[in-house]
Design a protein that fits this description.
2 domains, 3-stranded parallel β-sheet, 11 strands, binds guanine, 6-stranded parallel β-sheet, 294 residues, Rossmann fold, alpha/beta
């Protein structure tokens, strides 16, 4: 059996079109345009690529984007001051500090300094608490994108066994919270597995929907999935490839060639979850501006 590819590029483009329409309506009704501030500290090449993509997506959707680049040796207090300034800036509805941050900066402190009303990344403890208590405000973009991807591909998680491999604050934990909610597009039975899980394969073969967010190339092999499952690959791993000019290529966590022959639906890397993350960031930014003006 050959699987159907879940086209994140196409689905995210549809969402971005919907967002652009929403932005126009907001502008017509209130005279305001949503604004997103992105802060990049240091010069991590992958982060630079992500920030550039976020800026481009904002421009296409007519969302104002403000970019702040700070050197790798930026002091924590300087970054916190910049965030506090943006918290007070009425043109800015969303603030995103690109992670990871250099070692001298406490990530948790940074996340807590962003106003919870502008935390379009959904990482502030207040927003995480709202999600856990069943009243979500901002949901972090990658898990939110995964839920949309499932729904828009006809793979609703309702009543399904969902196994998430990975327990990060950015993906695994919030995704579990989203999909176990008592609400439409959720209602799943969720298992979270991680690096210390014993007998992982016994757990993953029970998945109707398997999500891998562990960051190891080729980690999910075909013996770990059941026939007809849905596989969502969140991994973005660089591996050396001397046949390419840039010297590397991007692969997911899933051994795509073998797994795709066994399952019913699968996301490619790149072009699966990645583009969805950006679309949901824009969606959260528009939501934030509506909370303020509409
Ligand atoms: N780095 C990788 N993914 C993300 C994300 O979703 N948000 C932020 N702020 N940084 C990231």
């Amino acid at each position: 059996m050959s699987s159907q590819i879940i086209d994140g590029k196409k689905i995210s483009a549809e969402i971005r079109d919907e967002i652009a329409k929403d932005v126009q309506i907001l502008k017509d009704n209130t005279g305001h345009v949503p604004g997103l501030a992105v802060i990049l500290v240091g010069d991590d090449p992958a982060s630079q690529v992500y920030v550039r993509m976020k800026k481009k997506a904002c421009e296409k959707a007519n969302i104002a984007s403000f970019e702040y680049r700070m050197p790798a040796d930026t002091k924590e207090c300087e970054l916190l001051k910049k965030i506090e300034e943006l918290n007070e800036n009425d043109k800015v509805n969303g603030i995103l500090v690109q992670l990871p941050l250099p070692g001298q900066i406490d990530e948790n402190k940074v996340i807590r300094t962003v106003s919870p009303l502008k935390d379009v990344d959904g990482l502030h403890p207040e927003n995480l608490g709202l999600l856990l208590s069943g009243r979500p405000r901002f949901v972090s973009c990658t898990p939110y994108g995964i839920q949309e991807l499932l729904m828009r591909s006809g793979c609703s998680p309702e009543g399904k066994n969902v196994v998430i491999v990975g327990r990060s604050n950015l993906v695994g934990k919030p995704l579990a919270a989203i999909l176990m909610q008592k609400s439409a597009g959720a209602n799943a039975t969720v298992t979270v597995a991680h690096s210390r899980t014993r007998n992982l394969k016994e757990i993953t073969v029970g998945a109707d929907i398997l999500v891998s967010a562990i960051g190891r190339p080729g980690f999910i092999t075909s013996d770990m999935v059941s026939e007809g499952a849905v596989v969502i690959d969140v991994g973005i791993n660089r591996i050396d490839d001397s046949t390419l000019e840039k010297g590397y290529r991007i692969v997911g966590d899933v051994e795509y060639d073998t797994v795709s022959r066994k399952v019913s639906f699968i996301t490619p890397v790149p072009g699966g979850v990645g583009p969805m993350t950006i679309a949901m960031l824009l969606k959260n930014t528009v939501k934030s501006s509506k909370m303020k003006w509409a």
